[in-house]
Amino acid sequence: MNGPSLTPADRLATRPTEQLSPGELKILRYLPTNLSRPQIASELSVSVNTVNTQVRNIYAKLQARG
Question: pLDDT above 70 covers what percent of the chain?
Answer without folding.
Answer: 73
